[in-house]
Amino acid sequence: MSQRCQVTGAVPRFGKSVSHSHRRTSRRFDPNVQTKRFFVPSLGRTVRLRVSARGLRTIDRRGIEAVVAEIRARGQKI
Fold this sequence. Notes:
Structural class: alpha+beta
Distance between the termini: 16 Å
CATH class: Mainly Beta
Radius of gyration: 16 Å
CATH architecture: Roll
Largest sheet: 2 strands, antiparallel
Low-confidence stretches: none
Strand content: 35-45%
Number of helices: 2
Number of domains: 1
Helix content: 25-40%
């Protein structure tokens, strides 16, 4: 499954690991994506979202109703 946050859109980034001898090798920075269930009162059911840690903070700040409305406005299926 893709490592993409449904709230913030966070995706893996790429960079380099630098050793003590300063050799550079490719590496990948993955977002902390978790699958969480939220109860949405307007829908009357729970929804399962793949959210990053920052996405959870966004839901806490703005509320699940506003976040779900934004996701649906983008045309994503929930």
